[in-house]
Amino acid sequence: MNTDISRREFIKFAGIGLLGAPVLMRGLSGVIENALGPWQAVQPQRSPALPNWQFIVDIKKCIGCGQCVKACKVENDVPPEPQYNRTWIERYSIDSLEEARVESYVPNINFNGSQHLSNTHNGNITKSFFVPKLCNQCQRPPCVQVCPVGATYSTAEGIVLVNRKACVGCRYCIQACPYGARFLDPRLRVADKCTWCYHRIVRGLLPACVEVCPTGARVFGDLNDPESPLHKIIAAETLGVLKPDVGTEPKVYYIGLERGVR
Amino acid sequence: MPEFFYPNEAVLEWDSLIVIYPYITGLVAGAFIVSSLYHVFGLTRLQPVARFSLLVSLAFLLVCPLPLLLHLGRPERALEMFLRPNLLSAMSGFGYIWLTYLLIVVAETWLVFRADIVRGIESSSQLRRTVYSLLSLGIRDLSETALTGDKKLVRLFALVGIPAACLLHGYVGFIFGAVKANPWWSTPLMPIIFLVSAIVSGIALLMALYVVAMKIRRKPLDHDCLHFLALWLGGLLTVALALEGLEVLTMYYESEESWGAISELIVGRLAISYFGIQFLLGSIVPILLLGSLEITRVRETVSARLRFLASILVLVGVFAMRWNVVIGGQLLSKSLRGVGNYTPPLFGEGSVVMAGALLLLPFLILAVMSFTVSPWQPQTQPTVDLADRWPRFSPGRSS
After folding, report:
1. Contact B73 A168 (CB under 8 A)
2. Which positions in chain A touch B13 (Cβ < 8 Å)?
3. Do A172 and B336 count as a contact with CB atoms less than 8 A apart?
4. What mean pLDDT is predicted for residues B174-201?
5. A96: distance to nearest CA of chain B, Å?
6. Residue A137, Ramachandran bin (φ over 0: left; ψ between -120 and 50: alpha; else beta)
C-alpha cells in the first residue's frame, strides 16, 4: 500500500484535525457531563423551597420499649422476622471505661406485645443505654452511588428511596451501607430500607416511629420551619453522628452518643 | 464479650454464586493473557497451548454472567443494567466490559481457527459440513494475503485484549475494594491483588488442563512448554503472595479500629481457608515446589506431575482467596463487634451444588469447542514472522 502523502494532503488533514479537535472535545465533554449526571444525586444539593428534614435521636431518653420498631413494621409492612428491619434498638451495657463491654439487643417483636430481652448480664454495669437506629438518609449516600440501575435514589428533599419496580436485587447497596440499614425484602426480592415514612412526612405527618415514641426520644422536623423543635435542641445539645469517618454525612443526629457506639 | 451484629446482617447476601463469579473471570483473564503472551509477545514456547488457552478463556467467559444473573433478586430485570445504567456504580460497568471483552475473544478465536474451520467444510459428514459452513460465516478465502491479514488481526485483538482482560478483572477487584463500609474489602490494593491472582489462576488452569488433555489424548507432553508455564506461574504467584501478605501485614501494623474484628476473622473463623489454604497450601507450597524443581534435576515425568500438583494447589488456593474475600467480608459485622459463621447450603439457591454445576459448565463448553475445532494440531507457521519484529523475551526452545 502506498502510504506516502503529499504536503498538500498533510496540511489539509492537519488543518481539519486542528479545527476538528476542539469541536470533538466540546462534544465529548458534553457526553461525559451527561454520563456523570447521576453524580448530582450524590452531592449535597438543596433547594431552599424544599423542606430540610432532619432527625434527632436522644439516647438519654430512649427506654428501649420497642414501640417504634413495632410501629414501623406495621406502618411500612416490614417482614415480621427479626432479620428484616427498617429501624431497631441496640442496648449497650458498659462495665468500665477501660473495657467498654457492649451488649446489644434488638427488641424481638412478636405482635402480642411481649418482648424478649436477655438478662444474662452478671458483671458490674457502670451504665446502660439504648441506641435506636434507622436510615441516616446520608447526604453522600454510598447506597445511591453503587446502585447499578439507579433504583436507589435521593429525592429532591434528600430522602433516599428505593424504586421497587427498578431494583434488580443485586444487593450491592446492602454491602455498601456502613450502618446495616438495608435488607432484601424476601417477598419482592428487592432492596428495602427506612424512608423516614416518606409517604407520611410529605403530607406533613410525623414518621410512625416518632409518632409512637412515649418519651420523645425521636425528634423529627424541618429545619426550614422556624417552629420546628429541632432548632432548640440543636442550640442546646451536643450532637454526634454515627461513623463520621466514613464520610457519608448522616442526617440522623444523636444526643448523648457514647464512644464505642457504632 | 458477646458478639453483636446489626440485625439485618443475619442474612448473608452474597453467597457461593458471588464467590465463583470472580473465580471464573479470573480464569478467563489469566488464560487469555497466556494466549496473548504467545500472539503478541512472541513467546513461542507457549505455542502448544496458545490455541487451547483461547478456547479456555472463551468457555469461561461465556459462563461468567450466569452466576450473577442467577444471584439477582429479580433476574428478569438484568438488562436494566445495560439499558439504564447508573454510571457511578462500578457494577453497572459489568455488562459493557464483559460484552467488549467477549467480542474481542470471539473475534480472535474465530480468526485463529478460521483456516481449520474452512478446511472442515470439505469434511465427509453432512453435520460437520453444515456446522463448519455456519462457523465460517461464509468467508472461505484461504489465500496467502487473507491468512496474513488474519494473523495481523489476531495480533491486534490479542493486544487490545490485554487491557480488556485487565479491566475485566481489575474491575471485579474494584467492586469489592471500593466498599468503604467493609474494612476487610476496602483497600486500593484489592483490584491489583485480584488481577495478579487472576493471571496466576489462569496459568494454573492451563497447566492442569494441558496435562489432563494430553493424558486423555495419549499424546506426549511438551515439557518445555509446561516448564515455561510453570516459570510464569511461580513468578506471578510470588508477586501475588507478596501483595496478599503486604495487605494483611499493613492492616495488622496500622491496627485501626477494625483490626480487632479482622484479626478475629482471619485467626479465628477463616484460619484454615485463609492461612491454611490461601497462603500455605495455595501459595507457599506451590512456590517451594516449583522453585525446587528449578534447582534440582528430576525426570521429566516426575517434574510434570509435581507441576501438575502445584497448579491444582494454586487453583484451590485462589478459590479459597475468593471465598475469604467474598464470604469473609460478610462474616465481619459492620458494627465491628462480631464475626459470623456461614456454611453454604447443599441444595437450592446459592448452594454448593448450584455453584459446582456452574463451575463445571465451562469445562463442558470447552469439551464441545475442542471437539468442534481441535486446538491441538500445530498451527501452520505460528505468528513467529510477526513476532520476530518484537524483542524476544525467551531464548526459545534451543536453549
Report:
1. yes
2. 171, 174-175, 184
3. no
4. 96
5. 13
6. left
Q: Residue A31: what pLDDT? A: 58
Q: Do B7 and A83 touch (CB under 8 A)?
A: yes
The CA distances from residue B324 to B187, B275, B329, in Å, are: 15, 10, 7
Query: With an 8 Å Cβ cutoff, are A106 and B7 in contact?
Result: yes
Give B237-290 pLDDT, tens digit per residue. 999 999 999 999 999 999 999 999 999 999 999 999 999 999 999 999 999 999
Kindly report the average pLDDT of chain B as a whole number.
Answer: 91
In chain A, % of residues over pLDDT 90: 61
Q: What is the pLDDT of residue B109?
A: 96
Nearest to B72 among A170, A178, A180 (CB): A170
Distance from the B279 Cα atom to the nearest Cα atom in chain A, whole angstroms: 26
Select from B4, B11, B85 the Cβ nearest to the Cβ of A148: B85
Tell me how far the alpha carbon of residue B59 is from its chain's centroid: 11
Would you say B64 and B21 are in contact if contact means Cβ atoms under 8 Å apart? yes
pTM of the prediction? 0.88
pLDDT for B395: 47
Min CA distance, B156 vs chain A (Å)?
19
pLDDT of residue A185: 97
Percent of chain B with pLDDT over 70: 94
Cross-chain residue pair A180–B335, CB shorter than 8 Å = yes
pLDDT 10s digits, B39-97: 999 999 999 999 999 999 999 999 999 999 999 999 999 999 988 999 999 999 998 99
Written as one letter, the residue type at B267 is V
Provide the β-strand partners of residue A132: A89
- Chain A touched by B255 (CB under 8 Å): no
Q: What pLDDT is stored for residue B385 in this prediction?
A: 46
- Interior angle at CA B220, CA B314 and CA B392, nearest 5: 70
Q: What is the secondary structure of chain A as a DSSP string?
A: ------HHHHHHHHHHHHHHHHHHHHHHHHHHHHHTTTHHHHS----TTS--EEEEEETTT-----HHHHHHHHHHT--SSTT--SSEEEEEEE--SSS-----------TTS---------S--SEEEEEEE-----SS-HHHHH-TTS-EEE-TTS-EEE-TTT-----HHHHH-TT--EEEETTTTEEEE--SSHHHHTTTPPPHHHHH-TT--EEEEETT-TT-THHHHHHHS-EE-S-GGG----SEEEES--TT--
The band of B120, judged by pLDDT with boundaries at 50, 70 and 90, is confident
Q: Which amino acid is at A173?
A: C
Q: Do B7 and A146 touch (CB under 8 A)?
A: no
Task: Give the mean pLDDT of chain A.
Answer: 84
Report which of B242, B338, B399, B363 is spatially closest to residue B6, judged by C-alpha positions: B338
Compute the nearest-CA separation of A226 from chain B (Å): 36
- Segment B335-340 shows an average pLDDT of 92
Quote the pLDDT of residue A68.
93
- Is there a contact between A83 and B80 if contact means CB atoms under 8 Å apart? no
Find out whether B43 and B212 touch, Cβ atoms under 8 Å.
Answer: no
Does B82 lie at the interface with A, CB-CB under 8 angstroms?
no
In the numeric block, which cell numbers belong to residue A106?
434488638
Chain A: give the shortest CA distance to residue B105, in Å: 25
The ipTM assigned to this model is 0.90
CB-based contact, B336 to chain A, within 8 Å:
yes
